[in-house]
Amino acid sequence: MLSALAVAVAGGLELAIGEPPTRLHPVAWFGRLVGAVDREWDHPLAVGALAAALLPLGAATLVGAGVALATTREPLAAAALAGLALFLTTSLRSLLSAARGVIADSDTDLPAARDGLLALAGRDASALSAGEVRSAAVESTSENLADGLVASLAAFVLGGTAATGVGLPALPVAVGAAAWVKAVNTMDSMLGYRSKRVGTPAARLDDAVMWLPARASALLLALACGSPRSVAQARDWLDGVPSPNSGWPMGTAAAALDVRLEKPGVYVLNPAGRLPDVATAQRSVTRVGVAGVLAYLLSGLGVLAWF
């Protein structure tokens, strides 16, 4: 049951710590490597493709090898190390805390709310109304349920299951898969802009990797909100969302809460609704937290397939 213990360790650290300081976070260290790629190149697509292939693979190999070595010496230590590594590939508590602060400020100190939104959503907040700020907070928490939690947990479970099927040690492969997904997502967040051709391969890879987690997150949100039909309702509003994935959890939240979510000039989800008020936006954040707990519970059950 070491795999279930690893999931429990990750969940416990998420609950107790939330996220380590940036200077101590391995994802931030990986980001420095990605930053070295973020420059002008004569052949940006070739460089970007090479980086997208090698950097996540290097991260996965390093993490997986460390857990494999620990497994040969002390299985309990290996489970603890795997749990720590899995925790470092996820982010939920800090996201929810930041969103709650922005939503609360939107009703009392709009400039502060706009400033706080910069930590959640990559958009110009200087002209956003209070309702649009709250919409952005709801959108960000819903989208990042997939990016920041479900993707890594799903990779952990599926990676370990696949490894067991071919006779490989499950725990090192599982945690390596989670690290690989987090590395791909980090590269996309740093380089995946139309203005950065070097980031195009990472962006396309992230689109493929996030296909399943985004839709799984939508289902988890629907369950957390007690609104099973909201996923089907969301489908009607997705054409305007540039990402092939992020619209699913965001649209599900819009349908389940019956609110309008809007990125001005880009997309509108549930156009017949109203922008969220403070109470509804805070309820949305709580529901994302519930969906996150469900994700951990399902991951704990999922690793039983390894046996």
From TrEMBL:
GO terms for cellular component: plasma membrane. Pathway: Cofactor biosynthesis; adenosylcobalamin biosynthesis. Pfam families: CobD_Cbib. PANTHER family: COBALAMIN BIOSYNTHESIS PROTEIN CBIB. It comes from Haloarcula amylolytica JCM 13557. One of its GO terms (molecular function) is threonine-phosphate decarboxylase activity. The chain crosses the membrane at residues 45-69, 76-96, 153-181, 288-306. This is Probable cobalamin biosynthesis protein CobD. It is found in: Cell membrane. It is a multi-pass membrane protein. Converts cobyric acid to cobinamide by the addition of aminopropanol on the F carboxylic group. It comes from the Archaea.
